[in-house]
Amino acid sequence: MSRLLSALRSIPLLLLAAALTLPVLAVLASWLPGSAGGAEAGAILREMATTVLPGYFATTVWLGLAVAIGAAVVGTATAAAVTLFDFRGRRTLEWLLLLPLAMPAYVTAYAYTDFLQFSGPLQVWLRETYGLQGRLLPEVRSLGGAVWVFIFSLYPYVYLLARTALGERAAHLMEAARLLGAPLARRVRTVALPLARPAVAAGVALVLMETLADFGVVSYFGIQTFTTGIYKAWLSMDNRLAAAQLATILLVLVMLLLQLEQRAQRRMRFAAGGAGRAGSAEAQPQRLQGLRCAAAWAVCVLPVVFGFVAPVAFMLRPLAADWSVLPWSRFLEWAGNSVRLGSITAVLAVAIALVLAFAVRRRAGALTRGVAQLASLGYAVPGAVIVVGLLLPVGWLQAAAPQWGLPSIITATAVGIVWAYLVRFCAVALQSMQSGYARIPASLDDSARMLGAGGAGLLARVHWPLLKRSTAAAALLVFVDVMKELPATMVLRPFNSDTLAVVAYQLARDERLGEAALPSLALVAVGLVPVVLLSRTLRSRG
């Protein structure tokens, strides 16, 4: 009887795991023999393999390689500057370097295109002032332009992890190396950089996952990557099975990067272990003066300018120039749709994360841990893969039982888009809830059970009061991620329910960049909230 009750209690967790992993399972199932439309999909893939797939692969590899190198250099340099050295303004620069996290990469792309394109204000001013003709600057909508945008939008991932790793023991070990007579350059090269290498690897893996998952930048710049290839196979060639099989290739790449990130995280914990903290009086960061101080300022200020200040200034220009062109009449409608979807998803994601974290806390068996890991898998899955993975079984269901009308619930209401959001962002809420549980001593659970508290009482009277801050943080992070998400929103949104992200993309695609400034700046303002909270958290730990 006890085994039967335990199995019955596991059914909700299994159903939850199935709902959150359905898109990935559907994409993988597209390779099963006997799938409907398999012959046509195979023909499309063979044709693409001889024509465009090599180009997709090469472009994706070159884009990822260039972004990885650039983000690693910028993130490591900035982390080393604010961690290993002390100079005027260092404390301010520590949190300013986080500001590009508030900028969606596609918004940065719109801003640079509006200002630097042939008809943009900079080139027009140069031609009028100096009597020049033709194009004066490189084309923004290019592979190089995308690399620039991704580097200065995503380097904070590397900066955050490298800063944490260097802050643990770097100053202490660098001081020991100085006492042994090593010059500054050698201390940085042989002590600081090897210590930060696992953190840099983990940050680069996150950067690459974001780059591979992007649709807004590559689509707007006309760059042919695997993500755009998935949408072409699906929308232009009208074959979801071929799109799903292409999505599998992208999914495998992302899974490899996820494994790299997890291995690097384990190495980070090993490297950061042991005694020694950078806060001791004899292990303070080295004070910089003169040209070295100016160089440190340049290293830290330029990424902030390129990744946040310049794009925001470029978008504020049309606001200041002509307020009449801005879509004020529909702005509140778009913002309302974004807030509604974000709020619904945040509440559901937090509820799911709380249930999963509580189940792991009470019964940390293989089943509960496996369900939690499956729920965390979705954050690494690109939005394009999730969309294909949701709509593929919808098409199968429609073909099998058209009289049920169930597919219309997914594609014509908010159910489908909220489902996609939950698959994508439940991991964010779960990580926050598990961090909150890690701070609750297990002795409190034992005391509550000795006093007769059951499962519901333990959660309501003991855990919940201690998890309120973690719950609020989880809801905020999910809300902001939903507000900025583009690929799934663009495809799955209900009719006449445009969000700020979708409208910004559509206006920019139609070359109405001035009008796109208003929804873009609204997304930036929303993204600033978690960045400010993150900077306060890091400062309190320092």
Please tell me about this protein's structure.
The chain is mainly α and 542 residues long. It has helices at residues 2-29, 38-51, 53-84, 90-96, 105-116, 121-130, 143-179, 184-213, 216-221, 226-236, 240-272, 290-321, 328-362, 366-377, 383-400, 406-411, 414-438, 442-450, 455-484, 487-492, 500-509, 513-541, and strands spanning 85-86, 286-287. Helix 13 packs antiparallel against helix 14. It starts with a helix and ends with a helix. The chain has a two-stranded parallel sheet. The protein is globular and about 70 Å long. The chain has 22 helices and two strands.
In terms of topology, how is this protein built?
Layout: H1 2-29, H2 38-51, H3 53-84, E1 85-86, H4 90-96, H5 105-116, H6 121-130, H7 143-179, H8 184-213, H9 216-221, H10 226-236, H11 240-272, E2 286-287, H12 290-321, H13 328-362, H14 366-377, H15 383-400, H16 406-411, H17 414-438, H18 442-450, H19 455-484, H20 487-492, H21 500-509, H22 513-541
Parallel strand pairs: 1-2
Helix pairs in contact: 1-11, 1-14, 1-15, 2-11, 3-7, 3-8, 3-12, 5-7, 5-12, 5-22, 7-8, 7-12, 8-11, 10-11, 11-15, 12-22, 13-14, 13-17, 13-19, 14-17, 15-17, 17-19, 19-22, 21-22
Please sum up the structure shown.
The protein has 542 residues and is mainly alpha-helical. It has helices spanning 2-29, 38-51, 53-84, 90-96, 105-116, 121-130, 143-179, 184-213, 216-221, 226-236, 240-272, 290-321, 328-362, 366-377, 383-400, 406-411, 414-438, 442-450, 455-484, 487-492, 500-509, 513-541; strands at residues 85-86, 286-287. A two-stranded parallel ribbon has the order 1-2.
